[in-house]
Amino acid sequence: MADTLGDVASMRPDKLDRDYPTWSITFRAYLRTKGLWETLDNPVPPNEAEDATAYTDWKGKDERALAQIILGVKTHHLVTVSVCTRAREAWDALEASFSAQTNARRAQLTVELTTIRKKAGESIHVYANRAKAMQAELATAGQPMDDNTTLLYVLRGLGAEYKMIKTVLLAAPQFLAWESVTTALLPVEAELGEAVAQDEGVTTAAYQAGYLDRAERRRRVTCWKCGKKGHYKAECRLSNKQEDGTGHSGGSPVVFMATGKAKTTVCLADDKEGKEAGAATLMATPMDKHVNDAVVFIDSGATHHMAKKEASFVTYHKTDNMEVEMANGDTVPAVGCGSVVLFTTVGAQLVLEDTLHVPSISANLLSVRVITKKKGKVVFEDDTMQLFKGSRLVATGVAKNGGQYVLEINPVVPAYASVAYGKQVEPGYLWHRRLSHLGAGNLAKMPNLVTGMDMKPTDATPVEGGMCIP
Known about the structure:
Radius of gyration: 30 Å
Number of domains: 4
Strand content: 15-25%
Largest sheet: 4 strands, antiparallel
Number of strands: 16
Distance between the termini: 61 Å
């Protein structure tokens, strides 16, 4: 029975883009419904001299199957199938292109799966299927990940509301399985949905749907001056007389960097408030006064990256007549400007140009505004941050106590980076890499066995908690 045009349209799977494992299953079923898969199962045609009718029938089906495959892929895959003359040839070419055994592709897929997070409003079923698709794609790339390992990352990506059931699942002695984990999570999801609906009603439902009316958005605004909700800083009734002698309004956090003032132009954008010529708005979030010097906070308001220590810079020059004004009215000097290099936990290298050296700030700042101006993309989702350059993930971050996002970086600078930026490399570490990552014990013996090594046995010291970077 011939299919109508409506039947064909309703049966045809989505065109192939990135998810080859899913496409191959659905498109194989589609070709079977059309009676065309047999030419791919039996790619050798019948002998034309012995049975011309069978040969003609096979050839017609093969041509139709090839046409369906070509029509079933998106434009950027046409170069792969356009030169094929048989349906089986086109099918194998697509499979080969998605099964490329490249370290770069495996690394990218691994990062996507190991950093998976459940999105706001996303159901457990959708979240689990998204992880399964990544797992299948990773297997296609030649690096399969077992269900137990995949589910450990899936459980890590759940929010704090699933803490109890995560503890129970992780304490079980047997390996995790998809069916048992999803079965355990679904009742918790249902209870959470009922609790939200009963406790907060229509407002929360609207929030979960991704919409907030003007009144609700207004209610959630937090004043940067007094810290209370419901009004903006410009509308705050707290007078300057109510502040203490230090300029703080009594809260424990300190809000940094409201306006930078410069008599000479040094890497600053124009001030939108028009308070003063040459000023620039450098918004920031509340931060604790005591943080580690290596910590980098992610700031969606700052117009420039800022660093506390001069040692953080790989290129540097002094600046004069530059000030950074705090939100409380205090000013601190910006004494230099240059480039800072950060090595992220996903294996990428961030070069932050035009970074201001501000010794008096309490934490290093990564400016989201600068990243987006440089054609980067920053995605905040739940309590995580992802930074992309094009389609490549180059950095991640997490929200710490108080809601401050912190960039996840590797504090150990690789030896190749030290060489590239003209910094001295420890001879023990350099010879460790030259000798194919030889262990510290054997490396310490080398200077006594050979001549020409510019190191001493005491230079061969292991790095506790570090990671060898090939």
